Amino acid sequence: MSSAGDVAILVVPVAAWAALGIGLAVAFRRAASTTLFRLAAAFLAGWAVLATTVLVFVVSNGGLGAIERLSRAPGAMFEPQYALLWLLGGVGAFLVFLAAFLLSQAVGRGFLLALRPRPLDWPAGLPEPATPTSLLAFPSARREAFSFTLLEPAPSGRFRRRDVILLSDGLLAELTPVEQEAVVAHEWGHIRELDGRYLTFFRTLARMMRWDPVLALLADSLTSREEFRADAAAVAITHRPRALARALFKAGPLRSPTASVGLLGVGGRRGRRQAVERIRRLVALAESGRYPEEPGA
């Protein structure tokens, strides 16, 4: 068999895998499916392995010269003599995954230690969570709301998940009770859709793998998409799209110099654009006739 044929046999599955990733990205943008979210997360993990292996290939084969070689013959790194590099790339990616996971867990625990939050009563208008969930307030004038998932030792010797929702005193003082409930529902939507387990990890991973702009772009796309999905989950629970829209307006960069990056997903100009789009969608839901009245709003 020709060398060109060998390369084709190796490159075709990679091309199919890349096409699968594009298909997942398109499908994920059009549907709020937990299965799609998990598949997209698995694709990100696979992409991270490929990116790490490419980095190992470039470093071990002369830097710029290796980049030039790959640009001329992308299939070069799939040649049998580079099997060890793939093993090293896989081990390197695993170590990055492990470090990202440990760092995301450490940051969550660090928040709890540094902020010294106090417990809040779970809103009466929301169903009780099916998993252990801590709703906490912390002293800060900033209008902040965010959530994450921790893994903690259980009496059985295994680990159990603990979901945490944090609201700042500044946000609580600004919002009415129904708006607070809408924000809790939004953060709970993240937790119920596994965002606390996956998104925090992939944001951390993308920051650690700064050499891979594609991973950063995909992780950022997941983050933006999940903010819209958490809004939809909150509305499905509370039937109050206007309450969440008002909370976003009060906490966001449209009005507040201390905007909540947690509640908005991102900050800066992009956070402002995203806040406008989210409010627009929520108002459209309110005017659609599906939620004609918002009791207690």
Walkthrough of the structure:
It contains eleven helices and four strands. It has one domain (3-286). 65% of the residues lie in helices and 9% in strands. A hairpin with a 5-residue loop joins β3 and β4. α7 packs antiparallel against α8 and α9 (241-251) runs antiparallel to α11. It has 297 residues and is α+β, with helices and mostly antiparallel strands. A four-stranded mixed β-sheet has the order 1-2-4-3, sandwiched between helices. The model has no long low-confidence stretch (mean pLDDT 77). It has helices spanning 3-30, 34-60, 64-72, 83-115, 169-174, 177-192, 195-208, 213-238, 241-251, 261-264, 268-286, and strands at 118-119, 133-138, 145-153, 159-168.
Condensed summary:
With 297 residues, the protein is an alpha+beta fold. Helices cover 65% and strands 9% of the residues.
